[in-house]
Design brief:
The complex is a heterodimer of chains A (112) and B (114). Chain A contains no helices and eleven strands. The mean pLDDT of chain A is 94. With 112 residues, chain A is mostly beta strands. Helices cover 0% and strands 58% of the residues of chain A. Helices cover 0% and strands 54% of the residues of chain B. Chain B contains no helices and eleven strands. Chain B is globular, with a radius of gyration of 14 Å. The mean pLDDT of chain B is 93. Classes of the chains: A mainly beta (112), B mainly beta (114). Chain A binds chain B through residues 4, 33, 40-43, 45, 48, 90, 92, 94, 96-98, 100-106, and chain B through 9, 32, 34, 36, 41-46, 49, 90, 92, 94-102, 104-107.
Chain lengths: 112, 114
């Protein structure tokens, strides 16, 4: 199994509070992604990174920011959480942009 | 722009019956195609992939898929369903252009009836 760890695995937070999710990889893959998964919507790309300090927006980036200061870590921050951000968040990595993705176990975030 | 459409958000088959999950794609260049499986409370795992070469691709757990360019399809099949196959399945597409990302379908939940 690819070495991808997401933390925390579960989190409940209040509306308006900041939240940071962490993705850590041990594969030295260049590309890292954050997706959210919601019923009826499948996987939607939030942000991705193609190298240290190189990031770009996905299709649902509003309300989210990311940082990648090291190859192995990719952080997703919700600056001020809203109930619409209640979801399951997945981190994924790829060696190149068009190769198969390896996924973390997911983080279930509930905003109350 | 690329896209992928999975026909049927839910599919039910009896144990021992043929599994057929449909995926159609849109791509301006020859695509790379993937099927992933997601078991409850887990991340996605790669089932199989097509890049170039043989159009019939075999994956894990007895699944296979055939790339049909004329039909722009990459349907997933398994001859005999097992209860352990109950999961959500995602088709995905990308292409050899290294600037493109993987695009996922919305998923098909497979139910196995005893």
């Amino acid at each position: 199994d690819a070495g991808i760890t997401q933390s925390p695995r579960h989190k409940v937070t209040e509306t308006g509070t900041p939240v940071t999710l962490r993705c850590h990889q041990t594969e030295n893959h260049r590309y890292m992604y954050w997706y959210r998964q919601d019923p009826g919507h499948g996987l939607r790309l939030i942000h991705y990174s193609y190298g240290v300090k190189d990031t770009d927006k996905g299709e649902v980036s509003d309300g989210y920011s990311v940082s990648r200061s090291k190859t192995e870590d990719f952080l997703l921050t919700l600056e001020s959480a809203t109930s619409s951000q209640t979801s399951v968040y997945f981190c994924a990595i790829t060696k190149d942009s068009n190769t198969e993705a390896f996924f973390g176990q997911g983080t279930r975030l509930t905003v109350v | 722009a690329q896209s992928v459409t999975q026909l049927g958000s839910h599919v039910s088959v009896s144990e021992g019956a043929l599994v057929l999950l449909r995926c159609n794609y849109s791509s301006s260049v020859p695509p790379y195609l993937f099927w992933y499986v997601q078991y409850p409370n887990q991340g996605l795992q790669l089932l199989l992939k097509y890049t170039t070469g043989a159009t019939l691709v075999k994956g894990i757990n007895g699944f296979e898929a055939e790339f049909k360019k004329s039909e722009t399809s990459f349907h997933l099949t398994k001859p005999s369903a097992h209860m352990s196959d109950a999961a959500e399945y995602f088709c995905a597409v990308t292409n050899p252009n290294r600037d493109d990302k993987i695009i996922f379908g919305k998923g098909t939940r497979l139910h196995i009836l005893p």
